Amino acid sequence: MKAQTTPKTLNEKTARIYTDDLLHQQYQAGERNFANWNLMDADLRNLDLRDINLRGANLSGALLICANLQNANLENADLSRAHICDANLTFANLSGANLDHTNLDGAVFDNPWWE
Length: 115
Fold this sequence. Notes:
The chain has 115 residues and is low in regular secondary structure. The chain has a single domain, classed as Pectate Lyase C-like (3 Solenoid). Helix content is 8%, strand content 5%. The longest helix has 9 residues, at 20-28. The radius of gyration is 13 Å and the shape is globular.
């Protein structure tokens, strides 16, 4: 399921909802800063997202199965209901991240940063 691309009002602020394809395209072009992006329900399975900055991003319900999130900054990200099974979270910053009802089965947590 692709994330929506139309603006949506969240908490009295207008926030753009980005597509998973746009993130992948910009990441491949060398961009690493995706702080505060709204990627609710995005399909990011099997992507290599090393060193990505998703600080404060909305990834609720996202599919991150088998994703490489090594050195990822997920500080204060909303990962509720996300599926992060078999993902690589080595050295990932998960400080303040919302992990309510998140599926982390098989995820690799070598030296993650928790606060």
